[in-house]
Hints:
mainly alpha; 82% helix; elongated
Amino acid sequence: MPRSGLDNEIFILKNEVLILGSMVEQSMISAVTALKKGDLLSAHTIYNSDKEINDKRYALENAIIILIATQQPMAHDLRILAAILEVAGELERMGDYAKGICKIMLKLGAVTPPIKMDDIEKMANKATDMLHRALGAFVDEDSSLANAIPMEDDEVDALYATVYEALISAMTHDTKKISQTTRYLWVAHNLERMADRVTNICERTVFIATGDLMEIDSSDDEETL
């Protein structure tokens, strides 16, 4: 394949990553909104739409494998394709987190949350914002931005600590609802893990730009809880 042809194929694949990322962002925000409102119908819809995210991921992988097998890209191009494979997997797992939140809600039913949802919403908004910018950095191969975004994970960790303490307090005050309240801990955990996976995407951006695959420190390594 001529250089221009390979460049075009990579451009298309990067756009597909952005589309997949947008699907994941919308799924997560919608899942948390449904949880807050007790909207079981939306939860069902989001839960079932996870198949679309999975299908998009597998289509990306298939296209990349074919391109590698038929064009044998080298050096920088090969790093891009390998990184897209990894990022597609990260996005699919983030989609699973949104699906997991909906699964929790469907088990709970339309119940009143044991705590105010403000901080959980903030976690979702921050994690999806980090993801959006990380994918922009990935497509632009902006290693400087990719190195900076993981530092924001401390904000998500702080919110997680606040939510955790509020939920433990709610359990203490109403022991009959321990099982229900514990499920909200898993909601917060899914959002915290989503933000952690954003760091993995940033690491792949640095890998594309420099050829070095290394961990990016997202905090001072102190325990959040």
